[in-house]
Amino acid sequence: MKYGGWPCLNTTGPSAGALASADPQPHLACGLMASTEALIKNETKVAATIAGGCLCGAIRYEAIRPPFRAGYCHCRQCQRALGNLFGPSIMFRQEDIRFLKGNLKWWHGRLANRGFCGDCGAPIAFKYHGAGHITIWVGSLDEPEAFRPEAHWGVESRLPWVDIHKDLPSYRTDEYLGFQEANARVPDPDN
Asked: What per-residue confidence (pLDDT) applies to 49?
């Protein structure tokens, strides 16, 4: 089954991470959403709370639940916003992220807002307008090595000499233009 151009994965129960059946159930989360176990490289290393912040320490945040998606974004907007070749990111339900110290400054774009530290300028977050989730840049995590990507997005802008995790599924932006609708359907950890 596909939703918004992405295959649907079961995120709960004994078949977590398996492709969903053609008959969607409320416990299915759509998009490249692997089970939490697939996102966390070493479960014993990850603390009960996932935390991070900016370069200067003015911003601190924590997540009370694990992310539901992780990957690399190669789109031109992320390349320019991050000043980098691609943006490794993880996605959390909005209510699962708490900012403990400082307030992000937000740049308001046409499709999304980008949160950064107003003191050091470090990029921290990305949020599509109307989405129920927030994307956190992996480099802002205290333990970025604890998470592994599961896909590449925006590959039409991937630089030809970037050769990283070619074994992962890759999607062009036009293949996931339903991302806002799909991203609005984030997994409910209580179901």
From this structure: 77
For residue 41, report the phi and psi dihedrals to the nearest 5 degrees. Answer: -70, -40
CA dihedral 88, 54, 78, 145 (to 10 degrees): -10
Return the CATH number at 110.
Answer: 3.90.1590.10
Residue 34, domain member (yes or no): no
Residue ranges of the chain whose pLDDT lies below 50:
1-38, 40-46, 180-186, 191
| Distances in whole angstroms, Cα of residue 12 to Cα of each of 18, 20, 43, 67, 147 | 10, 11, 17, 14, 19
For residue 16, tell me if it sits in a domain: no
CB 37 within 8 A of CB 156: no
Q: Which two tokens stand for residue 83?
A: 């000043």
CA distance 105 to 166: 34
Task: Please give the tally of structural domains in the chain.
Answer: 1
Taking the model in full, what pTM does it have?
0.72
> What does the angle CA 24 – CA 25 – CA 28 come to, to the nearest 5 degrees?
85
pLDDT at 153: 92
Is residue 32 a contact partner of residue 71, using CB atoms and an 8 Å limit? yes
